[in-house]
Design goal:
Length: about 100
């Protein structure tokens, strides 16, 4: 039986999701992940098998299907306007 770890909801529906992870100091996006979506709060939950498959995928030597630049914003403490930071990675990831 489904139990949401965020809101305690008990009903969910299957959906395919995309998630962004940080691993070894880099951002990676995994697309097409099967998940259960909580009907109450929308939290995505994945099986242990799916989570392990994602871990193996992002740590493998297999190249990504594509590589894209990402805008990085620095959040200013105290309610200031965040500044846009555009830095190129020290080394390219993937393609």
């Amino acid at each position: 039986m489904f139990h949401c770890h965020v809101c305690g909801g008990h009903t969910a529906h299957p959906e395919v999701v995309n998630e962004i992870f940080t691993t070894e100091g880099r951002l990676v996006q995994v697309v097409g992940i099967p998940a259960e979506i909580c009907d109450r709060c929308g939290e995505a939950t994945m099986t242990r098998e799916t989570t392990e498959s994602i871990r193996l995928l992002v740590h493998s030597a297999k190249p990504p299907v594509k590589t894209v630049p990402v805008d990085v914003f620095a959040f200013a403490a105290g309610g200031g306007v965040p500044a846009l930071v555009r830095e190129q990675p020290e080394k390219p990831y993937g393609n």
